[in-house]
Known about the structure:
Helix content: 55-70%
Number of strands: 2
Distance between the termini: 173 Å
Largest sheet: 2 strands, parallel
Shape: elongated
Strand content: under 5%
Number of helices: 67
Amino acid sequence: MSAPGARVAASDQGPGVRRRAWAELLEGRVERQKLSLEGEQKVRESAVRLLRSHLNLSDLILEVEGPPCDQLCLHQLIDCDGPDPHTDLSSSLIGSALRDQATRLGIPVAVLSSQVVASGLIRICEADTRPPPKVLLTPEQRKKLSSLLEIAQNLLAQSMFSRLYFCQELWKAQNSLLLEAVWRLHVQNIVNIPELLESHADTQAVVVWLCKDLGLLCEQIEAPCQHAEVARAVLADLVQMFVLRGFQKSEGMRGDGAPAQMAQIATGVLERMLASTLEAMAAGLQEGSPGYKAGSCWFGVFSGPMYQSILSAETLKKWFCHTLTQILTHKPVLKVSDAVQMQREWSFARTPTLLSGLYRRLFVILSPEELVGHLQDVLETQEVNWRHVLSCVSTLVICLPDAQQLVNGWVTRLLARAFESWDLDSMVLAFLVVRQAALEGPAVFPSYATWFQATFGSTRGIHSCSKKALVFLFKFLSDLVPFEVPRYLQVHILHPPLVPGKYRALLTDYVALAKTRLADLKVSIENMGLYEDLSSAGDITQPQSQASQDVEKALTVFEHTGKVPVAILEASIFRRSYYLSHFLPALLTPRVLPRAPDSREALIESLRRADKIPPALYSTYRQACSTAGQKQPEDAAQGGEVEPSCAEEPLDLLTAALQKLRASMTDPTQHDVLSAQVAMVSERLHSVLGLSEDVGSGEEATVQLSIQTPELQPREQRVVDLLLTSFCQNLMAASSVGPPDRQGPWATLFVRALCGRRFLPAMLTRLCQLLRYQGPSLSASHVLGLAALAVHLGESKSALPKVHMGPPAPARGLPIPEFIDSLLPCAAQQASTLCLKFSTAAISYSLCKFSQSHELLHSCLSPGLIKKFQFIMFRWFPEARDPPSQEDPASPPWRPLCLPSVDWRRAALCLWKQRALQELLKQGGLQLTYRDWLQLEIEIQPEVDSLSDTERQDFQQWAIHQHFLPMPSAAGGCDGDLEAACTTLVNVLMDFCQSSRSYHHSENSDLVLGGCKGNRDIFSRLQEMCADLEQGPASLGHAASREHFLFGVFHRRLQALAHGWDVASRLQRQRELLTCKRTLLGLPPSMLVSSPCAEQPATPSCADFFHLVNSELRNFSHDGALTHDITAHFFRGLLNTCARSRDPSLAADLALTACQTQCPLLLTSALLWWSSLEPELHCRWRRWSRSPLPAELQKLQETHLFAESVSSPLTPSPAPGPSWLCAAALHFVIQRARKESIWQELGKLDGQGEELFVSLFFFSLMGLLSSYLIPQAVSSLKALDICAEILGCLQRRRISWLLVFQLTEADVPLGRTLLGLAPDHQVRLLPVAFYSLLPYFDKDALLTEDAFLHVALNMYLKLVGLFVAGETGAVWTEAHGGELPTQGDPVSLITNARLFLLQLIPRCPERSFLHVAELLAVSEDCDPEVSAALLSRRQAVLNPALSQEPQLF
């Protein structure tokens, strides 16, 4: 920009002379001529006049850079580092130049300056040599534009700039205008974008131009570009401005009420950008393509948090609702019928990622209720794109935490409206929504079959209110039939709506129509699988494939139950076509049979025995199996090549999906897509399993596992390990970024994806393998991951089935948290270490994840796991036994657990000191109670315990006496009551010894307390505590109680058991009594006998023990005696207690005398074991007294000698004591002698009383019944011969023996005593003994007995009653069934008895019928023939006239 004169002067110089710039020339003259201030001002004015006369405005504005020596540069005047007058000079220079030019041209200076700046801006935009399309400036352009805009700002400040004219000039070169240049005009307040856009005459053209440039801008943002940040800023500002202008309430209208042009442009741009992206997606955008990247970038602007500080919540909601409406109504070309047919293709996993991501962003601002309400409004008022609507429902179900309740409420309202106004639109929408939600799996929404059955399968259904409602429902279902997929038709047929009988025709017509449609589709109801899941909306499985799945399921059920599954038996009858054509061929697939029959072979054999396999088919199967061994190598070689390739591709896809999910864990910008990626993992998992949907029995309420032998197929284990490993890695990756409470819902969604009915059993089986059998080999990351997995399984436990683990685990189903707790025992050091690690990790994770919700904490963690953590802390850390002196309020120690090397003991102590944990433990059901501690401590195996014997003893004594004994009962302690502590300990000890867990510690099947390794130390503590109780005074709370605490425990436990004579009840009671007895034997014998009172006579009290013997132990005694151990224990206790009294002999005599009437079984027991008992009694007595044994003990000795003398050649002395006691002693001697005949012994009893013979006969009868019940004891024939000899002796001596069979009716002392010596079940079996002796009865002599007919009839009726009740089955066993040829079974015995009665009744004298009146009614129901004979004979006896021949003439 030099003046012409300057150029000429320079050219006139000679060669070699350097040309100098105009500035240098001026500077030189200043230096040579010193001017005054006035002169300097004149020079300046002259220079300005010179410039004005030669000024080129375009060159002046655009001369930004150039060689400093050639021309005067504008940027040097404005941007140089010189003093301010230079800037003032440039501003005044440009302003003066523009004013002069405008004056010359006769136009306003503002118009001229606007034209000049616009021209400069266009030239800057056109200066880029890059090929179009372009939206961003280059760095050089950006620098030039910055200077230009600064000039424009100065012009604006001087009111020398017209925005309107400037905008008009820009639109003239619209195609050259770059979007960034427009944005910079807006940012630097030259011209704001709304003003620029409104200045354009064609609104539609502006929208098109903006959308084109915005699309290019989005592409450049996603492309690797050094100006991406500038592009993002441009996009954010533009979107913000569009939303403000388009949806801000105050900007929506002009003063005249017409819509604002800018609002139209803003909404037009937003709508056009969204529509173009939706159209591109519908055309099939490829991931990674420029269009896909542009769409992803544009959808990224729907980020509520980005604009919340700028835009109001109301504006954001209006924008998001408008966007959602546009999505739902975009190109509504599909009809409802299309949606019914195609909706399974629109699940969340199959929805384009861009669209599902946009849905999720929209859901952030809109509450669930607003979202459903808006969906409802759009569906009611506009035509919709059903694909977008249903994919939106799927996304809603997947991403919203309470989606199930939300959708259920929505559907309920739709159904109510449909049946109120017979609205088909509401009806079809309800069905479409439910089906779409059910597509996402049972983890988020119940299956369609479950919903349909719950909604229409009961009398409470909304359809059951009237006939009109039924007609409406079936009309709707019938209209759907031509478009329905087969699965839904099957649901409607197999789970039809409940219809009253008078309207069954409606249902019948619909079922016929549906079956016809299924037939057209070539789908057969009859060929459905046994365990086919109607909840799956996928394609119908071919019968051959379904049959293979049915076989595997049936084998699983058969392995756990040992019985043929009911489904197979039902199919063999009601679905015989499928059973014979598909199931049996799949089951009878030829193979090489194993040496030991496996479960498959056992099932086949069970079906064959039940005639469920045709013989020809079975024969073909066996022949094929016999030849399968030759073909096995070839088949294996062929199959080995094909099978892996089939599963390899889905497994690779699953692996890729898991890797993509893990990559998003550490990127905070990707957290909003985690739910979509988890859904993709779920979809890939279904593909790996070989199914399009989760398949399993819809009615299966439990998961069957084998805790002893958990096994998985190799493919299943590979998939489970892949998923568990991925979960652990994801957790570690997410924890490296933030704590659990800031990781979002990915873990919950991931676990839900693993909880399908098909996959859950495999995952739980693998957890069982890892935790129970491979725990020591797990790394820290494995433990952390599995602990977090367990927490989230507990979070979803309400939707998960219970787990049956099989023996020796509890028979009941366990919730998932309890199941995981059962996998973590504390019996050994290694197991306790794993339990400490796992519980520390699980509790820490839960406290971090759900710190604000105590309800979730309770549901996620099993109380048992929390108590085990406390147990190990008390056991291993002495510092944990003291009350926490200072709790740490900081957050639980999660970060240290994620380090590669974890100090678990330090982490556990750190967690223990947390205030959050201590507050959690104060809540109900989580604090370790005394009973909980005993149950855990009793399982400890001393040989593998981390504590030494001394440490274990010290710990147990601390726990009992210092911790739990003084603890309040409300907190799980004992309130200082030692007796209560002993009571709880005894209960826990007995529970443990009867539980299956105790079998693992000892091979002793009798559950001897001392033999269970886990409880011997605890039993020592019980002995110490009982000793303290015996030596100390009674507590105030129990001073008035007469029942000893130990017998109180026994009584309550026995009362809780079922009473009955069946084998199961008796065995359960016998096991309980055995435990009671072993507990007594392990405690001091003096506990059986309480100390005598101070007053005389000093009688020791044995009432509690007597009651236990009479009510319980007696029923399991043998031959009228208790076992030696408990008998000896009682007498030891008796002598010990009597030794502390004032007169030991008197006290012993009084106690033994009381035994004769209160507990005679103890005396007969002493006689049975006298040979071994007597030396011990003598030894004990001599310790305290030099006097002979007490008189009652001497009588027992004499009774024993009397019985011995009867069996010896010596003449016996008279019976010394009660006759029943002598008879018992004699019976024991006869039993031991095992003689074939006892007639010699009976002959020596001449002169003895009748009671002795009757009692001896009673004991022999008990011996006979014992031989029936326990054939190994004594031969039944020998026992019968002994009874017969004694019976013969009684009959010869004319001694009435019928009293023995009337004990329950006779109110005599002998009867009560004998009943107290025999078990109740043997007394009930006396009718068997009675009629077993039938051949030995002296019938003529018996006819003289008035009571014989009554006794014989009573015994017969009771015998029939025993047979009907099934109690005679225990008498005839295989061991001795052949010993009684004439009476080898109960039917023969009853037949002989009946025949005997029918022969006896006519011969009985008149007086015999005086006592049978009360038996007539019973006999009529039991045996009408016997009753008729008895009644006829009785009437003839009582009224002889009726029996005389009538005189007719």
